[in-house]
Amino acid sequence: MRHLMNPLDFTVGELERLFDLANDIEHNMPRYAHACAGKKLATCFYEPSTRTRLSFEAAMLNLGGSVLGFADADSSSASKGESVADTIRIVSCYADICAMRHPKEGAPLVAAEKSRIPVINAGDGGHQHPTQTLTDMLTIRTLRGRLDHLTIGLCGDLKFGRTVHSLINALSRYEGMRFIFISPDELRIPDYITEMLREKQIPYEEVIRLEDKMPELDILYMTRVQKERFFNEEDYIRLKDFYILNRKKMKLAPADMLVLHPLPRVNEISVDVDDDPRAVYFQQAQFGVYVRMALILTLLDIHVD
Ligand code: NCD
After folding, report:
1. pLDDT digits (tens, 9 = 90+) for 23-70
2. Model pLDDT, residue 273
3. Which of 95, 130, 40 is nearest to 87 (CA)?
4. Which residues' Cβ are closer than 6 Å to ligand 1?
5. Which member of 98, 196, 289, 299 has the lowest number of beta carbons within 10 Å of its beta carbon?
6. Peptide bond preceding 215 in cis form (omega within 30 of 0)
7. Could you identify the atom of ligand 1 that is nearest to the CA of residue 163?
């Protein structure tokens, strides 16, 4: 039995197969419509979510399976003091696979250790968000044609943004990558990530101004300042509008640069960018359904010929 806690749980070869499957699903949806008949997905979400939870549910429904679960800790027995380990033992009796989001780093891993069904980390605190990373990678691979030899700018909250941490981890295995970290000083990328890049001799730069680096980027990955992980509201208010990508700044970018964002967006991308063909963040959310369908099939070891 396999779980997904971190994008590195899959080898590069396994990821290639997963993305090929996701591309096939996109073009042949009816063939997969009954692949998970009789199977159930549990979504155990202890933290707010729109896309991740609904795209998991849509993925399972598209596969002909069914879904159950809870969308906030208050409506689960966590509010009575039940541990994640006990909850997953129970969920293992009711479902065939579980997607879990939790504000505490490592909680889905604790669940996986006690689980009788595959557990997918759907975001754990400021740590990892592997299925968002699969979504981001499928988007880049499909729209840009490759996952190597890319200059990727990550902008915004690089300290608390789990999608950023997972994506860098995953892309660090491809050749010719170059990372540009664009953030205010207070929201810098954690040291453990820059240490990992130095060890692997992967080039990176840390800068504050977005405009200066725009002309060099193949991909610009924008992120929201993670309000819920701040200890103090004043800092959040001071930093929340530090970056606002608008049409004027997009003029500095290459004609084929792609703008990704895991969403939700707050103010960091002005709505006047939405019509730019390089803005692919809504398409990205659609890719999230295909890749989660591919992931559910893979973890349940279901093959469709
Ligand atoms: C992200 C998350 O939850 O980490 N959202 C998502 O899953 N698409 C990013 C965010 O909340 O800013």
Report:
1. 999 999 999 999 999 999 999 999 999 999 999 999 999 999 999 999
2. 98
3. 95
4. 51-52, 123, 129, 132, 162-163, 224, 262-264
5. 196
6. no
7. 4
